[in-house]
Amino acid sequence: MLMASSGKPAHKNRHFSQSLRHALLGLGSAFQHERNLRFDVFAAILVVIAGLVVHVSRQDWLWLILAVASVIGAELANSVVEALVRLQVGPNFDPDPQIGRLLNVAAGFVLVVSIAAVAIGGLIFWPYLWR
Question: Coil, strand or helix: which one is 57?
Answer without folding.
Answer: coil
